[in-house]
Specification:
With 84 residues, the chain is α+β, with helices and mostly antiparallel strands. The chain contains 2 helices and 5 strands; from the N terminus they run E-E-H-E-E-E-H.
Length: 84
């Protein structure tokens, strides 16, 4: 599993809004997703799975799943992934 720590809205390292982004080929359990976000200890961790028409995304803080995270979503399409 690859986990990327990204700095959204910045052109320099250590600037902008940090988030983790995790490309997956299929969903892990909700508990595993939450544990990964807790271990990353960033404001949000975005997980995404490619679909035939785009991506399915989920976002977790270190303590709960949230309905949306803009800065993590902004960086997700720029990471390596495989469409199914």
């Amino acid at each position: 599993m690859k986990i990327y720590q990204v700095d959204a809205f910045a052109n320099e390292l250590f600037k902008g809004n940090s988030a983790a982004v995790v490309p997956l080929s299929s969903w892990l359990s909700e508990q595993d997703l939450q544990n990964i976000a807790m271990e990353n200890n960033l404001s949000e961790t975005a997980f995404f799975v490619p679909t035939q028409t785009g991506f399915h995304l989920r976002w977790f803080t270190p303590t709960v799943e949230v309905p949306l995270c803009g800065h993590a979503t902004f960086k997700a399409p720029n990471l390596p992934h495989k469409r199914i």
